[in-house]
């Protein structure tokens, strides 16, 4: 006897009335996609659960992939047996005796198949008695058992489990529309991207770089960050925008105090154009309130003026420490701290305005028209598609 299935629970989805079916279909597709390196493995769904038949494949690598799929609430290794009292007894005994270090247990039967002749409570008693009779080291503890033997009696078969592992939670990527993430090489924006993916949002990236002031390795950093995020869902397009000329024009013609704000406005304007082109309905940034001079509410107000699209800022209320904790956990931290120059760190003004005024910006922007430079930058956009590659995964375990 051995565990031959993985049972998948998707808690939050149950709440989503009308869209439920679309969510479940997407989740099934995403799990199947995460397991694309196992062509023989199929994900099946039935009565509020999903099942993976292992077909002799070791469970650990499959579990590891599944633990990164948003929308999964928890997972269990399961033993499938026939809907017969004797088989269920045998299976429960296997599950209990295979639990390392357990001294106390509890049996929890769920009878999904109401056609099964023995009711859950009665079945709990029968199995508890069977386990006590056939072992000598275990006792029952219904409140704090070392191991809970879960038994799900379903339409065609019964599944027996002794462990429950937490899944990534959230919603399946692809059910929440698309957002364009402004991805720098820093710590924050990849975390912002991760959190949006967790809400079911599919990402594309835009990155502004300033060669030769920023190096190839700085660009590689952004591609590597994106690659890490693909571990949580499919493939992601990265749009690279050459920003050197624009930055030079801005810093040449605008007062130093306002150059940073105007540069951000230009970034957002270009990003919005990419959204229109790609049919994307929102932008995401890694901004966090008060973190630096350029991230005050006045600054956000001044920058945000150029676009009508929602600008999502999932980190807005987080402390730097919290952001760093996230970034270490999802595997982007070590990439983010590589010491290559970012376009914003090169042209950084000594004292940017912390309280920029829209009226002043309007006056300043009347003097120079950046549109031709923006159009040129967009025309020179380079797009790279990053596909999830299991072999190079480095994410280990969601806490
Ligand atoms: P991060 O750690 O994400 O770089 P930060 O704390 O350094 O953020 P800023 O430099 O003020 O903050 O940037 C704020 C946000 O603007 C970033 O989180 C990112 O979304 C966007 N951004 C900054 N620089 C770039 C860039 N070169 N390309 C694309 N987006 C950028
Ligand atoms: Mg930065």
TrEMBL record:
GO molecular function annotation: ATP binding; CCA tRNA nucleotidyltransferase activity; tRNA binding; tRNA-uracil-4 sulfurtransferase activity
Domain of life, per the record? Bacteria
An example GO BP is: thiamine biosynthetic process
Write down the EC number. 2.8.1.4
Q: In which pathway does it act?
A: Cofactor biosynthesis; thiamine diphosphate biosynthesis
Domain THUMP, first and last residues per copy: 60-164
Coiled coil region boundaries? none
The subcellular location is:
Cytoplasm
Keyword presence, Transferase: yes
Residues given in the record as ATP binding sites: 182-183, 207-208, 264, 286, 295
Task: Identify its protein family.
Answer: Belongs to the ThiI family.
Output this protein's name.
Probable tRNA sulfurtransferase
């Amino acid at each position: 006897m051995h565990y031959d299935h993985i049972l998948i629970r998707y808690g939050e989805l149950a709440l989503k009335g009308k869209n439920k079916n679309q969510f479940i279909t997407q989740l099934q597709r995403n799990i199947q996609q995460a397991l694309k390196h196992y062509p023989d493995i199929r994900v099946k769904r039935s009565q509020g659960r999903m099942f993976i038949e292992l077909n002799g494949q070791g469970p650990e690598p499959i579990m590891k992939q599944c633990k990164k799929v948003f929308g999964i609430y928890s997972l269990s290794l399961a033993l499938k047996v026939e809907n017969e009292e004797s088989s269920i007894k045998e299976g429960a005994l296997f599950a209990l005796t295979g639990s390392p270090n357990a001294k106390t247990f509890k049996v929890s039967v769920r009878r999904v198949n109401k056609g099964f002749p023995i009711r859950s409570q009665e079945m709990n008693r029968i199995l508890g008695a069977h386990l006590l009779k056939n072992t000598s080291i275990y006792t029952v503890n219904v409140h704090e058992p070392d191991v809970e033997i879960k038994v799900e009696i379903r339409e065609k078969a019964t599944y027996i489990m002794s462990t429950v592992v937490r899944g990534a939670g959230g919603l399946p990527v692809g059910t929440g529309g698309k957002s364009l993430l402004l991805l720098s090489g820093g710590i924050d924006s990849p975390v912002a991207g991760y959190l949006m993916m967790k809400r079911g949002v599919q990402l594309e990236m835009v990155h502004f770089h300033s060669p030769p002031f920023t190096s190839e390795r700085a660009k590689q950093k952004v591609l590597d960050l994106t690659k890490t995020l693909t571990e949580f869902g499919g493939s992601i397009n990265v749009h690279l925008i050459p920003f050197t000329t624009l930055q030079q024009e801005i810093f040449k013609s605008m007062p130093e105090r306002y150059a940073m704000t105007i540069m951000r406005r230009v970034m957002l304007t270009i990003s919005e154009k990419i959204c229109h082109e790609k049919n994307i309905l929102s932008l995401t940034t890694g901004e966090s309130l008060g973190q630096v001079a350029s991230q005050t509410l006045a600054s956000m107000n001044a920058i945000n003026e150029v676009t009508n699209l929602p600008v999502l800022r999932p980190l807005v209320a987080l402390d730097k420490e919290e952001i760093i904790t996230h970034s270490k956990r999802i595997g982007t931290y070590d990439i983010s701290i590589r010491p290559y120059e970012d376009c914003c760190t090169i042209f950084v003004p000594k004292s940017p305005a912390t309280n920029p005024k829209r009226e002043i910006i309007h006056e300043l922007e009347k003097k120079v028209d950046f549109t031709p430079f923006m159009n040129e930058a967009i025309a020179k956009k380079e797009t790279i598609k990053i596909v999830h590659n299991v072999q190079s995964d480095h994410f280990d375990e969601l806490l």
